[in-house]
Amino acid sequence: MTSIQPAKPPEVEHEQPLIAHLTELRTRIIHSMISVVVVILLLAPFSTEIYNLVSTPLLSKLPAGTTMIATEVASPFLVPFKLTMYAALFITMPYLIYQVWAFVAPGLYLNEKRFAMPLLISSIVLFYTGTAFAFFVVFPLVFAFFTSVTPEGVSMMTDIGHYLDFIMKMFLAFGLAFEVPIATILLIATGIVSIEGIKEKRPYIIIGAFVVGMILTPPDVLSQFLLATPMLILFEIGLYFSRYFVPVVPEQPVSDQN
How far apart are CA 237 and CA 175, in angstroms? Predict the structure, then answer.
């Protein structure tokens, strides 16, 4: 004779999935933190070399005989180490985003997964592309402009801490600006705006791109132009590809009117 097991209270059945989700979340956060710490430890011995590499765009444009300076006692150690932490986050970003995706993906429908995965990969690639564009294209032009307009009798000797803050803001600005195609596709795919509606607002988008460039970049026309122009080009690219993500609206049956 089989014994009848007592049914679990409903609150216990709801509590177990919640605890399981929290446990998984904690595990993924720990894995993410470990990955960042491991990369920091691997990069720490080369922190000075990493800073020298990142400071090349400015050092190559400085007048002969001038160098960067450190205005605080601990800056020669702390600033390169701070850059090392940023570099570790930059390197591990795909893995960190994967951990977020692995936690969220089980709750998505199959069509949502097919929609989200290409956009997720594209957003990572575009962010890296934006930072590379800033480093290899924008920085040489901007620093050459800054050194050329330095008043006579003034030596341009940039503090290493201020330089790091400047380039990190620029990296973030261009990395986020290159996400414009993804934002455009998401707005159209979710039905917030239509392709025709966003085309009608193109003049306002052009003005908005230059306003964003003015806010996120130094107060010079060159930096604003170098940020606004790629944003507008990427907007057009996102607008072109958004036609493949337009939500399909089922047709309503036509009733006969007699």
Answer: 16
Structure-token match 């790091």, residue found: 164
Q: State the amino acid at position 210 in one-letter form.
A: F
What sign has the CA pseudo-torsion 108, 112, 117, 122? negative
pLDDT digits (tens, 9 = 90+) for 57-111: 999 888 877 888 888 889 999 999 999 999 999 999 999 988 888 888 777 777 7
Q: What gap in Å lies between CA 236 and CA 9, rounded to an integer?
A: 56
What tokens appear for 176 in the block?
A: 């986020």
Residues 92 and 35 sit within 8 Å (Cβ to Cβ): yes
Count CA atoms within 13 Å of residue 130 on its CB side. 29
Which alpha helices (DSSP H) does the chain contain, by range?
Answer: 10-43, 47-54, 56-59, 75-104, 110-133, 139-148, 160-177, 180-189, 195-200, 202-216, 221-241
pLDDT tens for each residue of 234-249: 999 988 888 877 665 5
Among the listed residues 176, 197, 194, 172, the one whose alpha carbon sits nearest the alpha carbon of residue 185? 194
Instruction: Give the residue from 144, 129, 134, 161 showing the smallest Cα distance to 234.
Output: 129
Q: What is the C-alpha separation between 104 and 24, in angstroms, rounded?
A: 11
